[in-house]
TrEMBL record:
<comment type="pathway">
    <text>Glycan metabolism; pectin degradation; 2-dehydro-3-deoxy-D-gluconate from pectin: step 2/5.</text>
</comment>
<dbReference type="InterPro" id="IPR012334">
    <property type="entry name" value="Pectin_lyas_fold"/>
</dbReference>
<dbReference type="Pfam" id="PF00544">
    <property type="entry name" value="Pectate_lyase_4"/>
</dbReference>
<dbReference type="GO" id="GO:0045490">
    <property type="term" value="P:pectin catabolic process"/>
</dbReference>
<keyword id="KW-0732">Signal</keyword>
<dbReference type="InterPro" id="IPR045032">
    <property type="entry name" value="PEL"/>
</dbReference>
<keyword id="KW-0479">Metal-binding</keyword>
<keyword id="KW-0456">Lyase</keyword>
<protein>
    <recommendedName>
        <fullName>Pectate lyase</fullName>
        <ecNumber>4.2.2.2</ecNumber>
    </recommendedName>
</protein>
<feature type="domain" description="Pectate lyase">
    <location>
        <begin position="1"/>
        <end position="159"/>
    </location>
</feature>
<comment type="similarity">
    <text>Belongs to the polysaccharide lyase 1 family.</text>
</comment>
<keyword id="KW-0134">Cell wall</keyword>
<keyword id="KW-0106">Calcium</keyword>
<dbReference type="InterPro" id="IPR002022">
    <property type="entry name" value="Pec_lyase"/>
</dbReference>
<dbReference type="GO" id="GO:0046872">
    <property type="term" value="F:metal ion binding"/>
</dbReference>
<keyword id="KW-0964">Secreted</keyword>
<dbReference type="GO" id="GO:0030570">
    <property type="term" value="F:pectate lyase activity"/>
</dbReference>
Protein backbone atom coordinates (compact mmCIF):
# COMPACT_ATOMS: atom_id res chain seq x y z
CA UNK A 1 0.00 0.00 0.00
CA UNK A 2 1.58 3.29 -1.11
CA UNK A 3 -1.21 5.77 -0.39
CA UNK A 4 -3.98 5.98 2.21
CA UNK A 5 -6.43 8.77 1.50
CA UNK A 6 -10.07 9.80 1.67
CA UNK A 7 -10.97 7.49 4.55
CA UNK A 8 -13.25 8.20 7.49
CA UNK A 9 -12.37 5.82 10.34
CA UNK A 10 -13.82 5.93 13.85
CA UNK A 11 -14.95 3.84 16.83
CA UNK A 12 -12.48 0.98 16.17
CA UNK A 13 -12.56 -1.92 18.65
CA UNK A 14 -10.06 -4.52 19.91
CA UNK A 15 -9.92 -7.75 17.84
CA UNK A 16 -7.93 -11.00 18.00
CA UNK A 17 -4.30 -11.61 16.88
CA UNK A 18 -3.37 -11.41 13.19
CA UNK A 19 -0.36 -11.16 10.84
CA UNK A 20 0.66 -9.11 7.81
CA UNK A 21 3.17 -9.78 5.05
CA UNK A 22 6.42 -7.85 5.56
CA UNK A 23 8.59 -6.17 2.89
CA UNK A 24 10.67 -9.32 2.34
CA UNK A 25 7.67 -11.61 2.07
CA UNK A 26 7.81 -12.86 5.65
CA UNK A 27 4.70 -12.91 7.81
CA UNK A 28 4.89 -10.42 10.69
CA UNK A 29 2.67 -11.21 13.69
CA UNK A 30 0.82 -8.14 14.89
CA UNK A 31 -0.52 -9.64 18.07
CA UNK A 32 -3.91 -8.58 19.29
CA UNK A 33 -5.21 -5.54 17.42
CA UNK A 34 -5.72 -2.80 19.96
CA UNK A 35 -8.26 -0.62 18.22
CA UNK A 36 -6.13 1.83 16.19
CA UNK A 37 -7.76 3.56 13.24
CA UNK A 38 -4.66 3.08 11.02
CA UNK A 39 -1.70 0.87 11.93
CA UNK A 40 1.40 0.53 9.73
CA UNK A 41 4.01 -2.14 10.47
CA UNK A 42 7.42 -2.38 8.68
CA UNK A 43 6.08 0.07 6.10
CA UNK A 44 7.94 2.35 3.71
CA UNK A 45 7.01 5.02 1.17
CA UNK A 46 3.42 5.46 2.36
CA UNK A 47 1.34 8.63 2.00
CA UNK A 48 -1.60 9.07 4.41
CA UNK A 49 -3.65 11.99 3.15
CA UNK A 50 -7.10 13.61 3.65
CA UNK A 51 -8.57 11.23 6.22
CA UNK A 52 -10.84 11.97 9.18
CA UNK A 53 -9.96 9.91 12.25
CA UNK A 54 -11.59 10.03 15.68
CA UNK A 55 -12.94 8.14 18.71
CA UNK A 56 -11.03 4.85 18.48
CA UNK A 57 -10.30 2.51 21.37
CA UNK A 58 -6.51 2.96 21.40
CA UNK A 59 -4.91 5.45 18.99
CA UNK A 60 -5.71 7.02 15.66
CA UNK A 61 -2.44 6.30 13.85
CA UNK A 62 0.43 3.98 14.85
CA UNK A 63 3.50 3.56 12.61
CA UNK A 64 5.99 1.03 14.02
CA UNK A 65 8.64 -1.67 13.44
CA UNK A 66 11.28 -0.18 11.17
CA UNK A 67 9.25 2.15 8.99
CA UNK A 68 10.79 4.78 6.71
CA UNK A 69 9.65 7.58 4.37
CA UNK A 70 6.10 8.15 5.64
CA UNK A 71 4.12 11.32 4.88
CA UNK A 72 1.06 12.18 6.99
CA UNK A 73 -0.76 15.16 5.50
CA UNK A 74 -4.09 17.00 5.35
CA UNK A 75 -5.78 14.81 7.96
CA UNK A 76 -8.29 15.73 10.65
CA UNK A 77 -7.65 14.15 14.06
CA UNK A 78 -10.18 14.82 16.81
CA UNK A 79 -11.88 13.44 19.94
CA UNK A 80 -9.04 11.14 21.00
CA UNK A 81 -6.67 10.55 23.92
CA UNK A 82 -3.62 9.05 22.13
CA UNK A 83 -3.48 10.42 18.60
CA UNK A 84 -0.30 9.39 16.76
CA UNK A 85 2.62 7.11 17.71
CA UNK A 86 5.78 6.96 15.59
CA UNK A 87 8.13 4.18 16.74
CA UNK A 88 7.42 0.77 18.26
CA UNK A 89 9.02 0.87 21.71
CA UNK A 90 12.13 2.19 23.45
CA UNK A 91 14.10 -0.99 22.73
CA UNK A 92 13.30 -1.31 19.02
CA UNK A 93 16.45 0.18 17.49
CA UNK A 94 15.46 -0.26 13.82
CA UNK A 95 13.24 2.77 14.25
CA UNK A 96 16.39 4.92 14.45
CA UNK A 97 16.24 5.06 10.64
CA UNK A 98 12.76 6.52 10.74
CA UNK A 99 11.93 9.43 8.46
CA UNK A 100 8.45 10.88 8.72
CA UNK A 101 6.77 14.12 7.72
CA UNK A 102 3.64 15.35 9.54
CA UNK A 103 2.29 18.34 7.63
CA UNK A 104 -0.93 20.31 6.93
CA UNK A 105 -2.97 18.42 9.57
CA UNK A 106 -5.63 19.69 11.96
CA UNK A 107 -5.39 18.33 15.51
CA UNK A 108 -8.53 18.90 17.56
CA UNK A 109 -10.84 19.58 19.11
CA UNK A 110 -10.53 17.26 22.11
CA UNK A 111 -7.11 15.71 21.47
CA UNK A 112 -5.10 14.89 24.58
CA UNK A 113 -1.55 13.81 23.61
CA UNK A 114 0.76 12.26 20.95
CA UNK A 115 0.44 14.71 18.05
CA UNK A 116 2.80 12.96 17.47
CA UNK A 117 4.88 11.03 20.02
CA UNK A 118 8.21 10.03 18.43
CA UNK A 119 10.60 7.24 19.49
CA UNK A 120 14.02 7.29 17.83
CA UNK A 121 14.46 8.64 14.30
CA UNK A 122 13.58 11.99 12.71
CA UNK A 123 10.24 13.77 12.35
CA UNK A 124 9.54 17.02 10.53
CA UNK A 125 6.31 18.51 11.87
CA UNK A 126 5.15 21.52 9.87
CA UNK A 127 2.16 23.74 9.08
CA UNK A 128 -0.18 21.91 11.45
CA UNK A 129 -2.99 23.49 13.46
CA UNK A 130 -3.18 22.45 17.12
CA UNK A 131 -6.53 23.24 18.68
CA UNK A 132 -5.53 22.66 22.29
CA UNK A 133 -4.35 19.59 24.21
CA UNK A 134 -4.58 18.19 27.74
CA UNK A 135 -1.19 16.58 28.47
CA UNK A 136 0.99 17.78 25.56
CA UNK A 137 1.06 18.16 21.78
CA UNK A 138 4.47 16.84 20.62
CA UNK A 139 6.39 14.27 22.65
CA UNK A 140 9.47 12.09 22.34
CA UNK A 141 11.64 9.43 23.95
CA UNK A 142 14.86 7.56 23.09
CA UNK A 143 16.66 10.50 21.52
CA UNK A 144 14.45 11.41 18.57
CA UNK A 145 15.16 14.45 16.42
CA UNK A 146 12.03 16.57 16.01
CA UNK A 147 11.79 19.74 13.95
CA UNK A 148 8.65 21.79 14.54
CA UNK A 149 8.30 24.36 11.78
CA UNK A 150 5.63 26.99 11.17
CA UNK A 151 2.92 25.27 13.21
CA UNK A 152 0.06 27.11 14.89
CA UNK A 153 -0.29 26.12 18.55
CA UNK A 154 -3.42 27.25 20.45
CA UNK A 155 -3.01 26.32 24.11
CA UNK A 156 -6.03 25.22 26.16
CA UNK A 157 -7.75 27.85 28.27
CA UNK A 158 -6.54 26.16 31.44
CA UNK A 159 -4.10 23.43 32.44
CA UNK A 160 -0.82 22.61 30.70
CA UNK A 161 0.20 25.14 28.07
CA UNK A 162 3.59 23.57 27.26
CA UNK A 163 3.63 22.03 23.77
CA UNK A 164 6.34 19.42 24.36
CA UNK A 165 6.89 16.37 26.54
CA UNK A 166 10.00 14.23 26.75
CA UNK A 167 10.70 10.95 28.59
CA UNK A 168 13.73 9.00 29.77
CA UNK A 169 16.06 11.90 30.56
CA UNK A 170 18.78 11.20 33.12
CA UNK A 171 22.51 11.76 33.53
CA UNK A 172 23.29 8.93 31.09
CA UNK A 173 20.76 9.92 28.43
CA UNK A 174 21.57 11.43 25.10
CA UNK A 175 19.78 14.77 24.65
CA UNK A 176 16.46 14.76 22.86
CA UNK A 177 16.48 17.24 20.00
CA UNK A 178 13.35 19.40 20.04
CA UNK A 179 13.77 22.37 17.74
CA UNK A 180 11.23 24.94 16.55
CA UNK A 181 11.39 27.61 13.89
CA UNK A 182 8.65 29.99 12.81
CA UNK A 183 5.92 28.53 15.02
CA UNK A 184 3.03 30.65 16.31
CA UNK A 185 2.07 30.30 19.99
CA UNK A 186 -1.37 31.52 21.05
CA UNK A 187 -3.20 31.67 24.37
CA UNK A 188 0.00 31.27 26.39
CA UNK A 189 1.39 28.22 24.54
CA UNK A 190 5.12 27.58 25.08
CA UNK A 191 7.77 25.30 23.55
CA UNK A 192 10.84 24.19 25.53
CA UNK A 193 13.59 23.87 22.94
CA UNK A 194 16.30 21.36 23.79
CA UNK A 195 18.68 21.73 20.86
CA UNK A 196 19.57 25.20 19.65
CA UNK A 197 21.59 23.81 16.76
CA UNK A 198 18.48 22.44 15.09
CA UNK A 199 17.12 18.97 14.51
CA UNK A 200 19.10 17.41 11.67
CA UNK A 201 17.05 15.65 8.97
CA UNK A 202 18.36 12.29 7.78
CA UNK A 203 17.27 12.80 4.19
CA UNK A 204 19.00 14.49 1.28
CA UNK A 205 18.51 17.96 -0.20
CA UNK A 206 16.25 16.66 -2.98
CA UNK A 207 13.83 15.32 -0.35
CA UNK A 208 13.57 18.59 1.56
CA UNK A 209 10.52 20.81 1.24
CA UNK A 210 9.56 24.32 2.29
CA UNK A 211 6.57 25.05 4.49
CA UNK A 212 4.40 28.16 4.39
CA UNK A 213 4.49 30.97 6.93
CA UNK A 214 2.59 29.97 10.08
CA UNK A 215 0.13 32.83 9.57
CA UNK A 216 -1.38 30.83 6.69
CA UNK A 217 -1.88 27.61 8.69
CA UNK A 218 -5.57 28.23 9.46
CA UNK A 219 -6.40 28.57 5.77
CA UNK A 220 -4.09 25.69 4.75
CA UNK A 221 -5.75 23.26 7.18
CA UNK A 222 -9.31 24.38 6.42
CA UNK A 223 -9.70 21.46 4.00
CA UNK A 224 -8.08 18.86 6.29
CA UNK A 225 -9.93 15.58 6.57
CA UNK A 226 -12.03 13.79 3.97
CA UNK A 227 -12.90 15.95 0.98
CA UNK A 228 -16.45 16.55 -0.17
CA UNK A 229 -16.25 15.22 -3.71
CA UNK A 230 -19.10 14.74 -6.16
CA UNK A 231 -19.20 13.64 -9.77
CA UNK A 232 -20.21 17.11 -10.91
CA UNK A 233 -18.11 19.14 -8.46
CA UNK A 234 -14.31 19.19 -8.28
CA UNK A 235 -12.82 18.40 -4.87
Amino acid sequence: MYGILQLRIHHCKVVGPSSVRGPNGEMVPLGQMDGDAIRLVTASKVWIDHNTLYSCQDGLLDVTHGFIDITISNNLFKDQDKVMLLGHDDGYLRDKNMRVIVVFNHFGPNCNQRMPKVRHGYAHVGNNLYQGWEQYAIGGSMNPSIKSEANYFIAPKSGNKEVTWRNGINENSKPLMFYFVGDVFENGASFIQTDLGGAKPNYNDQQRFKVADAKFVRSITKSSGTLKCFRTIMC
